[in-house]
Amino acid sequence: MSLVELPGGVCATQGVTAAGVPAGLKPSGRADLALVDAGRPVAAAAVQTTNQVQGAPVAVTARHVANGRARAVLLNAGSANVCTGPDGVALAEESTAVVGEALGCDAADVLVCSTGLIGVPLPRERFLAGIPAVVTALSTEGGSRAAKAIMTTDTLVKQAAVRVEDTAGTCVVGGMAKGAGMLEPAMATMLAVVTTDAPVQGPVLRSCVRDVVAHTFGRISVDGCQSTSDAVVVLATGTAANTPSLSAFKEGLAAVCGRLAESMVRDGEGASKLIRLRVTGARSEGDAVGVARAIAGSVLVRTAFAGADPNWGRILAAAGAGPVAFDPGRVAVTFGDITVCRFGVVTAFDRGQAVAALSGREVRVAVDLGLGTAEATFLTCDLTHDYVTINAEYTT
Amino acid sequence: MSLVELPGGVCATQGVTAAGVPAGLKPSGRADLALVDAGRPVAAAAVQTTNQVQGAPVAVTARHVANGRARAVLLNAGSANVCTGPDGVALAEESTAVVGEALGCDAADVLVCSTGLIGVPLPRERFLAGIPAVVTALSTEGGSRAAKAIMTTDTLVKQAAVRVEDTAGTCVVGGMAKGAGMLEPAMATMLAVVTTDAPVQGPVLRSCVRDVVAHTFGRISVDGCQSTSDAVVVLATGTAANTPSLSAFKEGLAAVCGRLAESMVRDGEGASKLIRLRVTGARSEGDAVGVARAIAGSVLVRTAFAGADPNWGRILAAAGAGPVAFDPGRVAVTFGDITVCRFGVVTAFDRGQAVAALSGREVRVAVDLGLGTAEATFLTCDLTHDYVTINAEYTT
Questions:
Q1: d(CA B64, CA B66)
Q2: Measured distance CA(B176)–CA(B259) in Å, rounded
């Protein structure tokens, strides 16, 4: 099986068009309304937030995708349309009808995702007035403009696409995403649209998406905060002629989602470095993820990373406060290639080397529980002054 | 029943002496070794961390207090004696023997608590050599010197004492504590020693202590991080002649522990304000605490507080990601006296007034779940640039 990177993001998949336009939803006047169109109703699946407080678009998208079919995804920044009452739900519904009318399809074949502030109503006139403009702008070159239009505190446009090939055939998977803060669990807190020409549908598509999301967007944390708007939507056109095996398709999907997830952590609010946290020696993969999540969720650990401080005791304390049982006397902690703790006690390590291993744009941290053979990799970033600045001033 | 504040901290209780001396455990040369002595073996109880990674002194103290009796508590800053292997446990044991010899009591009647860095061995010679000095320094005036000697990143000395009086009689409760970061759950992450002359002992004392700790130290959070060294130790001398009712004693204990807990949050690492978070309308008190803990645990909520940003959506999102079920459509959020959200949607509030309500050294935030009559108050603080500075540079 081979994977080749492609340009184009969501438009890497043949027949998919996209666009991003300014609709006046962001005070900055930047592009804030995006549309991804598969050209006709195709197989679709979505994984959404498990937060008890959910945005109006989350409910509408869940209803519309329940039949496993969709044609287009409307996305906006500027307001998440969360905690906006019945008006918010009515507006989300109405927007799918307006898109459906413009594209010539059922409202039920249109999904909607919103991101931005919670509790701020989405300005109805401007939101709806932007739809004809974004439909008119649809093009096979529009992938990155769509990806740009959904950015909030993001500083990098997040796109990825690959061609997957095995002896049976070939298919394309392309995607875009936004997300830099309120990034955590159950799945990462973000929006992503992924397209593919693989003929995968129904329960098989849903199970592929769920599984891949759990292993990619589900294994990153910027701040341990879960949003109310998370959605990963996959549109599968099925136009590929000779398609690879299902497992090859899944690897392609995992590659695209994995790259998008990693780009979110790299672009984490205020982040100065990516932490690649590997937990090994666990009794189960779930245990490994649980320990990693407890460590990545500790603000003390993440501020120590900001200072390149080899304060491994905080890693053990964070893991010990978590829900997964382990034996502290068996734990080893390694920064880069420098093992600082073995059997739960400090080793004679060179402090300068440990600091060096924690410096730079990308850092490897390994925690071996010494209990079994299961492992997991989890991505997080450091907690810096800039994170505080960004989040103390977000609405002001 | 009446409560009157007293000076003296742990020494407010008659017969208790205390001391704090420099033993060279902190590089600064400040006092770092403390002793509290009840003068003879008295009733004792302790509540300790539930972290899976526990300090050597936690294990030794648990063993020594199991019989409900103790005479003295040795405390040090500079090293938490955690993740230090069998040598760490042996040293903790040895220190109780050295104190016992100097005081003329069994090692088993001496408890030990350590705070400071994890994984750094406690320097044996200096630690043990300091004990004769701290025993010699014991005095009825030594309460605040003992309280000072256990400070780490604390900037305020934490002491409180009250006289409790009802128709049946009177008793005294006095205490000291340390704690400013790694402050959270199960109970707050800190050390505290409380003395009283009330004749309470055995299972009754244990249950009083557990209950009061759950309602005081158990309801604060500075950073959601649990330490490996938490301990609240209560020594009850029983010398009070006419003692008040058990419930009056418990109120006195709650007053002292509550004041110590509040002073920890006020002194939270980098904190610029105290947040008094009141959750009402819950189905149970446990639910109210659970919702409060989820909100206080959100770094997005706490950075918004730092910026006096009335971003109530983050409060709902944090509560919604938590373990307690509620109906977002019934929730109201109030900053000071300004209700910003009612029935889960934004109200027409004055933004300037809301910002004003979130400014200043102390802020009230109320969340009404609209489901029942139970409530709880929880204390936390804002997450500021200074928190990042303090914790990015703690060991470096």
A1: 6
A2: 10
* pLDDT band of A89, cuts 50, 70, 90: very high
The pTM (predicted TM-score) of the whole model is: 0.84
> Which one, of A100, A110, A380, A388, lies nearest residue A268 by Cα?
A380
Range(s) within chain A of domains with CATH label 3.10.20.340? 274-392
Query: Over the stretch B261-314, which tens digit does the pLDDT of each residue have?
Result: 888 888 877 888 999 999 999 999 999 999 998 999 888 898 889 999 998 988
CB-based contact A317 B388, cutoff 8 Å: no
Contacts of A308 in chain B (CB under 8 A): 396
Nearest Cβ partner for B383 among A80, A224, A388: A388
A 298-327: CB under 8 A from B? 298-300, 303-304, 306-314, 316-321, 325-326
B389 touching A (Cβ < 8 Å): yes
Nearest-angstrom CA–CA distance, B152 and B155: 8
Which residue bears the tokens 């672009």?
A267
CATH topology of domain B2-266: L-amino peptidase D-ALA esterase/amidase (3.60.70)
d(CA A171, CA A246): 10
Note whether A388 contacts B389, CB cutoff 8 Å: no
Strand-strand pairing, B374-381 and B362-368: unpaired
| pLDDT grade for A214, boundaries at 50, 70 and 90 | confident
Ranges of CATH 3.60.70.12 domains, chain B: 2-266
* Contact (CB, 8 A) for B172 and B6: yes
- Measuring CA to CA, how many Å separate B242 from each of A309, B168, B239? 55, 7, 9
Question: What's the one-letter identity of residue B303?
Answer: T
Catalytic site includes residue B189 = yes
Q: How far is CA B6 from CA B2, B164, B173, B256, B300, in A?
A: 13, 10, 9, 10, 39
Give the Å distances, CA to CA, from B227 to A220, B58, B258.
Answer: 24, 11, 19
Alpha carbon of residue B385 to chain centroid: 24
Residue pairs between chains A and B whose CB atoms are closer than 8 Å: 221
Type and span of the H or E element at A134: helix A124-136
Instruction: Using CA coordinates, name the residue in chain A closest to B328.
Output: A53
Alpha carbon distance A38, B344 (integer Å):
35
Considering B13, B96, B170, B189, which one is annotated as catalytic?
B189
Whether B83 and A321 lie within 8 Å, measured CB to CB: no
Q: What backbone torsions phi and psi does residue A365 show, to the nearest 5 degrees? A: -125, 125
More confidently predicted of A134 and B243: A134
Q: Are B44 and B233 in contact (CB under 8 A)?
A: yes
The correct answer on CATH 3.10.20.340 for the domain covering A274-392 is: yes
- ipTM value, please give it: 0.76
The pLDDT of B99-111, averaged and rounded, is: 98
Angle between helix axes A385-392 and B385-392 (nearest 10 degrees) is 170
- Whether residue B393 and residue A310 make contact (CB cut-off 8 A), yes or no, is no
Residues 127-186 of B with CB under 8 A from A: 181-182, 185
Residue at token pair 């701290």: B134
User: Is B392 within 8 Å of chain A by CB?
Assistant: yes
What H or E segment, with its residue span, contains residue B62? Answer: helix B56-65
Q: How far is CA B373 from the centre of its chain?
A: 28
Contact B311 A117 (CB under 8 A): yes
CB B395 to CB A309 under 8 A? yes
